[in-house]
Amino acid sequence: MLYLLSRSWAKMELWCSAFLALMITLLILLNVATRSLGAALFWVDELAIYTMVWMTFFGASAAMHYRTSVSITLLTDAVPLAVKAIIEKVVDLIVFAFAIAVVWFCWRWFSPLELARAGFDTVAFQGATFNFIYAEPTSTLGVPKYLFWLVMWFFAFGAVLHSAMHLFSNPVREADQ
């Protein structure tokens, strides 16, 4: 069950990454065209950057599911299979701990309970917490930056899901699917 959920989420992440890669290409082409016509749209640069950030986080999370993240296998290639399996489970545990830490940091950063306690009034929230996450606008788009930072929640969910799947799954069964 956990494997199927992880696989479905990873497929959605890859689809989103591919769509965002297409959007980056189109935004850059729009930027080139408008600059060559002498009517540059400065917000396109910023939107392309945020689009690339979202694409990267979705791709990184999906890479956790497929175990295609960059890794150094010098040690695991040199030890017997039993030791390799232990090392991989320790790495899975570390990745899971990292994913839980990302969730905790997102919770601290976005402070959803404190925002609710303030009645979703961002000014009251800022005064009570000195957290200005909901007040900072983007430079050229003029929308709140927290909308772009929401990708951290998607990444955190995917990272917890994929790392938990690896941590609690049987490596032989996983290889068969």
Automatic annotation (TrEMBL):
Residues spanning the membrane: 48-66, 90-110, 146-168
Localization terms from the record: Cell inner membrane
Membrane disposition: Multi-pass membrane protein
Keyword annotations of the record: Cell inner membrane, Cell membrane, Membrane, Transmembrane, Transmembrane helix, Transport
Domain of life: Bacteria
Pfam families found in the cross-reference section: DctQ
InterPro entries: DctQ, TRAP_DctQ
Keyword Transmembrane helix part of the UniProt annotation: yes
Tripartite ATP-independent periplasmic transporters DctQ component domain ranges (all copies): 24-169
Major place of residence: membrane
Transport in keyword set: yes
Family: Belongs to the TRAP transporter small permease family.
Role according to the record: Part of the tripartite ATP-independent periplasmic (TRAP) transport system.
Subunit structure: The complex comprises the extracytoplasmic solute receptor protein and the two transmembrane proteins.
Protein's UniProt name: TRAP transporter small permease protein
